[in-house]
Predict the 3D structure of the following.
Amino acid sequence: MKKLIAVAVLAAFSSLPYAAEKDITTDVVVVGQGAAGTAAAFAAAEQGAKVIGLEKKGMVGGTGNFSEGIFAVGSKMQRDYYIPLTKDEAFKKIMNYGHWRSNARLVRAFVDKSADTVEWMQKHGVKFEKLTTNYPGGLYTWHIYQGRGAGWINALQKKGKDKYGMQVLLNTPAEKLIFGKDGKVAGVVAKDKDGNTLNIHAKAVIIATGGFADNPEMMKKYTRFPNTDASESIISVCFNSSLLKYGGDVAVGAMTILTSVMQFAMLPMQGIGQGAQPIMSFNYGAGKIDRVKKAFWLLLKVTFSYSTLIWLAVMIFPQVFVGLFTSDATLLAFTKTALRIYMACVFLMGIQIACQMAFTSIGCAKESILVAVTRKFILLIPLIYIVPLIWRSNQTLAVYLAEPIADFFAVSFTVILFSRQFKKALEKAPKSSAQASADRSAQA
Protein backbone atom coordinates (compact mmCIF):
# COMPACT_ATOMS: atom_id res chain seq x y z
CA MET A 1 0.00 0.00 0.00
CA LYS A 2 2.87 2.39 0.88
CA LYS A 3 4.50 1.74 -2.49
CA LEU A 4 1.28 2.62 -4.29
CA ILE A 5 1.02 5.93 -2.39
CA ALA A 6 4.65 6.79 -3.15
CA VAL A 7 4.15 6.06 -6.86
CA ALA A 8 1.01 8.21 -6.91
CA VAL A 9 2.82 11.15 -5.25
CA LEU A 10 5.71 10.92 -7.69
CA ALA A 11 3.31 10.81 -10.62
CA ALA A 12 1.49 13.90 -9.33
CA PHE A 13 4.69 15.91 -8.96
CA SER A 14 6.01 14.80 -12.33
CA SER A 15 2.88 16.24 -14.00
CA LEU A 16 3.50 19.71 -12.54
CA PRO A 17 5.14 22.28 -14.87
CA TYR A 18 8.73 23.18 -14.02
CA ALA A 19 10.87 26.15 -14.98
CA ALA A 20 13.36 25.62 -17.76
CA GLU A 21 16.45 27.49 -18.90
CA LYS A 22 16.58 28.55 -22.54
CA ASP A 23 19.37 30.04 -24.66
CA ILE A 24 18.35 32.55 -27.33
CA THR A 25 20.57 34.32 -29.86
CA THR A 26 19.64 37.62 -31.52
CA ASP A 27 21.23 40.76 -32.95
CA VAL A 28 19.68 43.32 -30.60
CA VAL A 29 17.79 43.01 -27.33
CA VAL A 30 15.90 46.06 -26.04
CA VAL A 31 15.02 46.09 -22.34
CA GLY A 32 11.77 48.00 -21.86
CA GLN A 33 9.05 48.59 -24.42
CA GLY A 34 7.79 52.02 -23.49
CA ALA A 35 8.17 55.02 -25.79
CA ALA A 36 11.98 54.89 -25.99
CA GLY A 37 12.14 51.08 -26.14
CA THR A 38 9.52 50.87 -28.89
CA ALA A 39 11.33 53.46 -31.03
CA ALA A 40 14.72 51.81 -30.47
CA ALA A 41 13.47 48.29 -31.25
CA PHE A 42 11.62 49.44 -34.37
CA ALA A 43 14.58 51.46 -35.66
CA ALA A 44 16.92 48.48 -35.26
CA ALA A 45 14.46 46.10 -36.93
CA GLU A 46 13.99 48.58 -39.79
CA GLN A 47 17.73 48.34 -40.47
CA GLY A 48 17.48 44.57 -40.82
CA ALA A 49 18.54 43.50 -37.33
CA LYS A 50 16.92 40.58 -35.55
CA VAL A 51 15.34 42.24 -32.51
CA ILE A 52 13.85 40.98 -29.25
CA GLY A 53 12.10 43.46 -26.93
CA LEU A 54 11.55 42.68 -23.24
CA GLU A 55 8.70 44.22 -21.25
CA LYS A 56 7.97 43.37 -17.61
CA LYS A 57 4.35 44.55 -17.86
CA GLY A 58 1.54 42.84 -19.69
CA MET A 59 1.29 45.62 -22.26
CA VAL A 60 3.66 47.91 -24.15
CA GLY A 61 3.90 51.69 -23.88
CA GLY A 62 4.08 52.37 -20.14
CA THR A 63 3.48 56.02 -19.31
CA GLY A 64 4.38 56.84 -22.92
CA ASN A 65 0.83 55.79 -23.82
CA PHE A 66 -0.40 59.00 -22.19
CA SER A 67 2.05 61.44 -23.79
CA GLU A 68 0.57 64.22 -25.92
CA GLY A 69 3.21 65.16 -28.42
CA ILE A 70 6.83 65.68 -29.35
CA PHE A 71 9.12 68.71 -29.66
CA ALA A 72 10.59 69.53 -33.08
CA VAL A 73 12.11 72.50 -34.91
CA GLY A 74 12.23 72.77 -38.69
CA SER A 75 9.62 70.11 -39.45
CA LYS A 76 7.38 70.13 -42.50
CA MET A 77 4.41 70.85 -40.23
CA GLN A 78 6.11 74.04 -39.03
CA ARG A 79 6.87 75.09 -42.58
CA ASP A 80 3.24 74.48 -43.51
CA TYR A 81 2.20 76.66 -40.55
CA TYR A 82 4.72 79.34 -41.58
CA ILE A 83 6.58 79.11 -38.27
CA PRO A 84 9.91 80.90 -38.86
CA LEU A 85 11.76 79.51 -35.81
CA THR A 86 15.26 78.24 -36.64
CA LYS A 87 17.26 75.53 -34.91
CA ASP A 88 19.83 78.09 -33.78
CA GLU A 89 17.11 80.23 -32.18
CA ALA A 90 15.55 77.22 -30.45
CA PHE A 91 18.93 76.07 -29.15
CA LYS A 92 19.68 79.49 -27.66
CA LYS A 93 16.24 79.76 -26.07
CA ILE A 94 16.58 76.35 -24.44
CA MET A 95 20.08 77.10 -23.15
CA ASN A 96 19.08 80.57 -21.88
CA TYR A 97 16.09 79.09 -20.08
CA GLY A 98 18.43 76.81 -18.13
CA HIS A 99 21.02 79.56 -17.61
CA TRP A 100 23.44 77.54 -19.79
CA ARG A 101 23.72 74.83 -17.17
CA SER A 102 22.46 72.14 -19.53
CA ASN A 103 24.74 69.92 -21.59
CA ALA A 104 25.09 72.14 -24.66
CA ARG A 105 26.22 69.36 -27.02
CA LEU A 106 23.34 67.14 -25.98
CA VAL A 107 20.80 69.94 -26.37
CA ARG A 108 22.25 70.80 -29.80
CA ALA A 109 21.96 67.20 -30.97
CA PHE A 110 18.42 67.00 -29.61
CA VAL A 111 17.35 70.14 -31.49
CA ASP A 112 19.14 69.20 -34.71
CA LYS A 113 17.57 65.70 -34.87
CA SER A 114 14.08 66.74 -33.78
CA ALA A 115 12.61 67.44 -37.23
CA ASP A 116 14.13 64.25 -38.67
CA THR A 117 12.48 62.29 -35.86
CA VAL A 118 9.02 63.65 -36.66
CA GLU A 119 9.43 62.97 -40.37
CA TRP A 120 10.73 59.45 -39.66
CA MET A 121 7.60 58.77 -37.58
CA GLN A 122 5.37 60.15 -40.33
CA LYS A 123 7.11 57.95 -42.89
CA HIS A 124 6.05 54.93 -40.86
CA GLY A 125 2.41 55.93 -40.61
CA VAL A 126 2.32 57.99 -37.42
CA LYS A 127 -0.16 60.84 -37.77
CA PHE A 128 -0.15 64.20 -35.99
CA GLU A 129 -3.28 66.19 -35.16
CA LYS A 130 -1.85 69.66 -34.97
CA LEU A 131 1.07 71.92 -34.17
CA THR A 132 0.70 74.01 -31.02
CA THR A 133 2.45 75.49 -28.00
CA ASN A 134 2.20 74.22 -24.44
CA TYR A 135 2.10 77.63 -22.74
CA PRO A 136 0.66 81.08 -23.57
CA GLY A 137 2.86 83.02 -25.98
CA GLY A 138 5.14 80.02 -26.40
CA LEU A 139 6.88 78.62 -29.45
CA TYR A 140 4.94 76.41 -31.84
CA THR A 141 7.14 73.34 -31.52
CA TRP A 142 4.68 70.91 -29.91
CA HIS A 143 3.59 68.26 -32.46
CA ILE A 144 0.48 66.52 -31.07
CA TYR A 145 0.06 62.79 -31.84
CA GLN A 146 -3.18 61.48 -33.23
CA GLY A 147 -4.40 59.04 -30.59
CA ARG A 148 -1.81 60.41 -28.18
CA GLY A 149 1.20 58.26 -27.29
CA ALA A 150 -0.67 54.97 -27.45
CA GLY A 151 -1.50 55.70 -31.10
CA TRP A 152 2.07 55.78 -32.42
CA ILE A 153 3.45 53.18 -29.98
CA ASN A 154 0.89 50.56 -31.00
CA ALA A 155 1.33 51.47 -34.68
CA LEU A 156 5.11 50.94 -34.62
CA GLN A 157 4.78 47.79 -32.53
CA LYS A 158 2.38 46.29 -35.08
CA LYS A 159 4.43 47.31 -38.10
CA GLY A 160 7.64 46.12 -36.45
CA LYS A 161 6.13 42.70 -35.84
CA ASP A 162 4.31 42.30 -39.17
CA LYS A 163 6.92 43.77 -41.53
CA TYR A 164 10.27 43.44 -39.78
CA GLY A 165 9.78 40.37 -37.57
CA MET A 166 10.31 42.27 -34.31
CA GLN A 167 9.59 40.02 -31.33
CA VAL A 168 8.31 41.43 -28.04
CA LEU A 169 8.08 39.28 -24.90
CA LEU A 170 5.54 40.63 -22.39
CA ASN A 171 5.60 39.85 -18.67
CA THR A 172 9.30 39.14 -19.12
CA PRO A 173 11.54 41.37 -16.99
CA ALA A 174 15.29 41.44 -17.53
CA GLU A 175 17.15 40.43 -14.36
CA LYS A 176 20.82 40.93 -15.12
CA LEU A 177 23.33 41.53 -17.89
CA ILE A 178 25.50 38.89 -19.52
CA PHE A 179 29.17 39.83 -19.91
CA GLY A 180 31.63 38.31 -22.36
CA LYS A 181 35.21 37.30 -21.61
CA ASP A 182 36.37 40.74 -22.73
CA GLY A 183 34.15 42.40 -20.12
CA LYS A 184 31.71 43.80 -22.67
CA VAL A 185 27.94 43.38 -22.41
CA ALA A 186 26.90 40.35 -24.46
CA GLY A 187 23.23 39.92 -23.59
CA VAL A 188 20.70 39.76 -20.75
CA VAL A 189 19.13 37.17 -18.50
CA ALA A 190 15.34 37.44 -18.31
CA LYS A 191 12.49 35.57 -16.64
CA ASP A 192 9.30 34.92 -18.59
CA LYS A 193 5.77 34.68 -17.20
CA ASP A 194 6.07 30.90 -16.76
CA GLY A 195 9.22 31.25 -14.67
CA ASN A 196 11.58 30.11 -17.40
CA THR A 197 15.06 31.66 -17.44
CA LEU A 198 15.96 33.15 -20.81
CA ASN A 199 19.65 33.65 -21.57
CA ILE A 200 19.44 36.07 -24.47
CA HIS A 201 22.79 36.49 -26.22
CA ALA A 202 22.98 39.62 -28.40
CA LYS A 203 25.45 41.74 -30.32
CA ALA A 204 23.93 44.86 -28.77
CA VAL A 205 21.85 45.57 -25.67
CA ILE A 206 19.72 48.72 -25.36
CA ILE A 207 18.46 49.69 -21.90
CA ALA A 208 15.22 51.69 -22.18
CA THR A 209 13.72 51.24 -18.73
CA GLY A 210 12.80 54.86 -18.05
CA GLY A 211 14.35 57.70 -16.07
CA PHE A 212 16.52 57.59 -12.97
CA ALA A 213 14.27 59.50 -10.54
CA ASP A 214 14.21 56.46 -8.22
CA ASN A 215 18.01 56.24 -8.11
CA PRO A 216 19.24 58.53 -5.29
CA GLU A 217 22.89 58.26 -6.34
CA MET A 218 22.20 59.33 -9.92
CA MET A 219 19.81 62.06 -8.80
CA LYS A 220 22.53 63.48 -6.58
CA LYS A 221 25.17 63.22 -9.32
CA TYR A 222 23.25 64.52 -12.31
CA THR A 223 20.59 66.90 -10.99
CA ARG A 224 20.50 70.07 -8.90
CA PHE A 225 17.73 68.83 -6.61
CA PRO A 226 17.46 65.71 -4.43
CA ASN A 227 14.61 63.26 -4.65
CA THR A 228 11.92 64.66 -2.35
CA ASP A 229 9.68 61.54 -2.35
CA ALA A 230 11.83 59.94 0.35
CA SER A 231 11.33 62.92 2.66
CA GLU A 232 7.55 62.64 2.40
CA SER A 233 7.73 58.94 3.28
CA ILE A 234 9.85 59.67 6.36
CA ILE A 235 7.41 62.33 7.55
CA SER A 236 4.48 59.98 7.01
CA VAL A 237 6.17 57.29 9.11
CA CYS A 238 6.88 59.80 11.90
CA PHE A 239 3.29 61.06 11.98
CA ASN A 240 1.73 57.60 11.89
CA SER A 241 3.98 56.10 14.57
CA SER A 242 3.31 59.01 16.93
CA LEU A 243 -0.44 59.02 16.24
CA LEU A 244 -0.69 55.25 16.73
CA LYS A 245 0.96 55.67 20.13
CA TYR A 246 -1.37 58.44 21.36
CA GLY A 247 -4.59 58.04 19.38
CA GLY A 248 -4.82 54.58 17.86
CA ASP A 249 -6.28 53.55 14.50
CA VAL A 250 -8.79 56.41 14.30
CA ALA A 251 -6.00 59.00 14.56
CA VAL A 252 -3.95 57.25 11.88
CA GLY A 253 -7.01 57.00 9.62
CA ALA A 254 -7.66 60.71 10.11
CA MET A 255 -4.08 61.48 9.13
CA THR A 256 -4.62 59.82 5.75
CA ILE A 257 -7.56 62.18 5.14
CA LEU A 258 -5.61 65.22 6.33
CA THR A 259 -2.72 64.59 3.95
CA SER A 260 -5.18 64.08 1.08
CA VAL A 261 -6.90 67.39 1.80
CA MET A 262 -3.52 69.13 2.12
CA GLN A 263 -2.43 67.77 -1.25
CA PHE A 264 -5.72 68.92 -2.74
CA ALA A 265 -5.05 72.40 -1.36
CA MET A 266 -1.37 72.57 -2.38
CA LEU A 267 -1.48 71.21 -5.94
CA PRO A 268 -3.12 74.28 -7.55
CA MET A 269 -0.56 76.55 -5.84
CA GLN A 270 2.30 74.38 -7.06
CA GLY A 271 0.83 74.41 -10.56
CA ILE A 272 0.58 78.21 -10.51
CA GLY A 273 4.15 78.43 -9.23
CA GLN A 274 5.48 76.08 -11.89
CA GLY A 275 3.67 78.12 -14.51
CA ALA A 276 5.38 81.28 -13.28
CA GLN A 277 8.81 79.65 -13.11
CA PRO A 278 9.66 79.77 -16.85
CA ILE A 279 8.49 83.40 -17.03
CA MET A 280 10.77 84.50 -14.18
CA SER A 281 13.63 82.31 -15.36
CA PHE A 282 13.49 83.52 -18.97
CA ASN A 283 13.39 87.18 -17.97
CA TYR A 284 16.15 86.66 -15.41
CA GLY A 285 18.36 85.12 -18.10
CA ALA A 286 17.50 88.02 -20.43
CA GLY A 287 18.44 90.56 -17.77
CA LYS A 288 14.91 91.97 -17.56
CA ILE A 289 14.87 92.45 -13.81
CA ASP A 290 11.69 94.57 -13.68
CA ARG A 291 9.75 91.74 -15.31
CA VAL A 292 11.17 89.23 -12.83
CA LYS A 293 9.98 91.43 -9.95
CA LYS A 294 6.53 91.93 -11.49
CA ALA A 295 6.15 88.20 -12.11
CA PHE A 296 7.14 87.37 -8.54
CA TRP A 297 4.76 89.89 -6.96
CA LEU A 298 1.91 88.68 -9.16
CA LEU A 299 2.72 85.08 -8.21
CA LEU A 300 2.79 86.02 -4.53
CA LYS A 301 -0.59 87.80 -4.72
CA VAL A 302 -2.24 84.89 -6.52
CA THR A 303 -0.84 82.11 -4.32
CA PHE A 304 -1.44 84.01 -1.07
CA SER A 305 -5.02 84.86 -2.10
CA TYR A 306 -5.67 81.24 -3.04
CA SER A 307 -4.15 79.83 0.17
CA THR A 308 -6.18 82.27 2.26
CA LEU A 309 -9.43 81.25 0.54
CA ILE A 310 -8.64 77.56 1.05
CA TRP A 311 -7.84 78.24 4.71
CA LEU A 312 -11.18 80.02 5.21
CA ALA A 313 -13.08 77.21 3.52
CA VAL A 314 -11.40 74.57 5.71
CA MET A 315 -11.98 76.54 8.90
CA ILE A 316 -15.67 77.17 8.13
CA PHE A 317 -16.64 73.92 6.33
CA PRO A 318 -14.24 71.17 7.48
CA GLN A 319 -16.97 68.53 7.23
CA VAL A 320 -17.27 69.15 3.49
CA PHE A 321 -13.62 68.29 2.87
CA VAL A 322 -13.57 65.34 5.26
CA GLY A 323 -16.82 64.02 3.81
CA LEU A 324 -15.13 63.56 0.45
CA PHE A 325 -13.06 60.72 1.94
CA THR A 326 -15.24 59.04 4.58
CA SER A 327 -18.85 58.53 5.64
CA ASP A 328 -17.98 56.94 8.98
CA ALA A 329 -19.58 59.11 11.68
CA THR A 330 -16.85 58.54 14.30
CA LEU A 331 -13.98 59.23 11.91
CA LEU A 332 -15.81 62.23 10.42
CA ALA A 333 -16.38 63.87 13.82
CA PHE A 334 -12.78 63.35 14.93
CA THR A 335 -11.19 64.44 11.63
CA LYS A 336 -13.18 67.70 11.47
CA THR A 337 -11.38 68.97 14.55
CA ALA A 338 -8.03 67.54 13.50
CA LEU A 339 -8.29 69.20 10.07
CA ARG A 340 -8.76 72.68 11.57
CA ILE A 341 -5.63 72.19 13.67
CA TYR A 342 -3.53 70.56 10.96
CA MET A 343 -4.26 73.30 8.39
CA ALA A 344 -4.32 76.24 10.81
CA CYS A 345 -1.44 78.00 9.02
CA VAL A 346 -2.06 76.85 5.47
CA PHE A 347 -2.81 80.46 4.44
CA LEU A 348 0.92 81.16 4.86
CA MET A 349 1.88 78.48 2.34
CA GLY A 350 1.10 80.83 -0.53
CA ILE A 351 4.11 82.87 0.59
CA GLN A 352 6.28 79.75 0.94
CA ILE A 353 5.42 78.48 -2.55
CA ALA A 354 6.01 81.87 -4.21
CA CYS A 355 9.41 82.37 -2.58
CA GLN A 356 10.56 78.80 -3.19
CA MET A 357 9.57 78.91 -6.87
CA ALA A 358 11.29 82.28 -7.29
CA PHE A 359 14.49 80.89 -5.75
CA THR A 360 14.47 78.05 -8.28
CA SER A 361 13.72 80.39 -11.19
CA ILE A 362 16.72 82.65 -10.59
CA GLY A 363 19.21 79.87 -10.02
CA CYS A 364 19.23 79.93 -6.19
CA ALA A 365 19.03 76.14 -5.91
CA LYS A 366 20.75 75.97 -2.52
CA GLU A 367 18.30 78.41 -0.98
CA SER A 368 15.33 76.53 -2.45
CA ILE A 369 16.59 73.25 -0.97
CA LEU A 370 17.39 74.95 2.35
CA VAL A 371 13.85 76.24 2.93
CA ALA A 372 12.37 72.83 2.03
CA VAL A 373 14.76 70.97 4.34
CA THR A 374 14.19 73.48 7.15
CA ARG A 375 10.44 72.97 7.11
CA LYS A 376 10.45 69.18 6.85
CA PHE A 377 13.49 67.94 8.71
CA ILE A 378 14.69 70.72 11.03
CA LEU A 379 11.21 71.76 12.20
CA LEU A 380 8.41 69.31 11.42
CA ILE A 381 9.91 65.93 12.33
CA PRO A 382 11.25 67.02 15.77
CA LEU A 383 7.99 68.85 16.53
CA ILE A 384 5.96 65.69 15.86
CA TYR A 385 7.59 64.19 18.95
CA ILE A 386 8.15 67.34 21.05
CA VAL A 387 4.69 68.97 20.97
CA PRO A 388 2.84 65.97 22.53
CA LEU A 389 5.27 66.08 25.44
CA ILE A 390 4.33 69.73 26.07
CA TRP A 391 0.55 69.57 25.44
CA ARG A 392 -0.21 66.54 27.57
CA SER A 393 -3.93 67.24 27.95
CA ASN A 394 -4.57 65.99 24.40
CA GLN A 395 -1.46 64.40 22.97
CA THR A 396 -3.21 63.14 19.84
CA LEU A 397 -4.22 66.61 18.68
CA ALA A 398 -0.78 67.82 19.75
CA VAL A 399 0.75 65.63 17.03
CA TYR A 400 -1.38 67.38 14.41
CA LEU A 401 -0.40 70.75 15.89
CA ALA A 402 3.21 70.12 14.86
CA GLU A 403 2.27 70.89 11.23
CA PRO A 404 1.02 74.51 11.67
CA ILE A 405 3.84 75.32 14.10
CA ALA A 406 6.39 74.10 11.56
CA ASP A 407 4.62 76.03 8.81
CA PHE A 408 4.70 79.28 10.78
CA PHE A 409 8.40 79.16 11.62
CA ALA A 410 9.34 77.83 8.17
CA VAL A 411 7.57 80.66 6.38
CA SER A 412 9.11 83.19 8.74
CA PHE A 413 12.57 81.84 7.97
CA THR A 414 11.82 81.78 4.23
CA VAL A 415 10.68 85.42 4.20
CA ILE A 416 13.84 86.56 6.02
CA LEU A 417 16.11 84.56 3.72
CA PHE A 418 14.24 85.62 0.60
CA SER A 419 14.31 89.33 1.47
CA ARG A 420 18.11 89.14 1.62
CA GLN A 421 18.98 86.70 -1.17
CA PHE A 422 16.48 87.82 -3.82
CA LYS A 423 17.99 91.28 -4.07
CA LYS A 424 21.54 89.87 -4.25
CA ALA A 425 20.56 87.41 -6.99
CA LEU A 426 18.96 90.14 -9.10
CA GLU A 427 22.09 92.26 -8.83
CA LYS A 428 24.10 89.36 -10.30
CA ALA A 429 21.66 88.80 -13.18
CA PRO A 430 22.94 89.10 -16.77
CA LYS A 431 22.47 92.54 -18.26
CA SER A 432 19.78 93.04 -20.86
CA SER A 433 20.87 93.81 -24.41
CA ALA A 434 19.64 97.40 -23.98
CA GLN A 435 21.63 97.88 -20.78
CA ALA A 436 24.71 96.26 -22.30
CA SER A 437 24.50 98.65 -25.29
CA ALA A 438 24.10 101.61 -22.98
CA ASP A 439 27.19 100.54 -21.01
CA ARG A 440 29.25 100.22 -24.18
CA SER A 441 28.09 103.66 -25.33
CA ALA A 442 29.05 105.16 -21.99
CA GLN A 443 32.50 103.59 -22.18
CA ALA A 444 32.97 104.90 -25.73
